[in-house]
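Why do we care about 3D structure at all? Because function follows from shape, and shape follows, mostly, from sequence. That is the central idea of this module. The next example makes it concrete: a single protein chain, its amino acid sequence, and then its structure expressed as tokens.
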Amino acid sequence: MSDATSEAKSAFTSLRVALAVSGVIALVVGILLLVWPGKSAGVLTWILALYLVIAGLVYIGLGLFSATKGGWARVGHVVLGLLYIVAGVVAFANIAATTAVLAVIVVIFIGVSWIVDGIVSLTLLNQAASKGWTITYAIISIIGGLVVIFSPLFAALVLWWILGITLIVIGIVQIIRAITIGKDATEITEELRTELS
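And the structure:
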């Protein structure tokens, strides 16, 4: 087997493994989101809290041990690190409340961004190729944003379901791609082998 053929086969094998692993992870996470939405949201909040504590320690380390930064930059890093650690500890102290607050904040942010997107679309109406579709999009975006803002808990739940279903579908597609890419790899390596012979 030539070097080009073995490199192609190795590349396809690596791609297959990456697709299969990412597909299985997406599928499992999607199922967990749908089966245990509260627990999986709590796990995500726990991971975020852990990240905050680790980031805080890193910033404190940067502030204390950086010889190249000036005094105010070092103090700023230490203060920022302490704030991160405090936020992480507060999140760890009450995971359920932190999860609910984060969900509401994210959903409100999404609602506001949809409203702004709809308004921006209306301001660009004179440049739009299809005014009817632009107006329809803007109205749907603004109404969707208002619905999300005025019922953030319901919207958070619906968005969680959509995320779970999307991850399941993505996972299944990735696994299928990993399986079918094997056939493509065989065909391409055979073509390479015949070209190089």
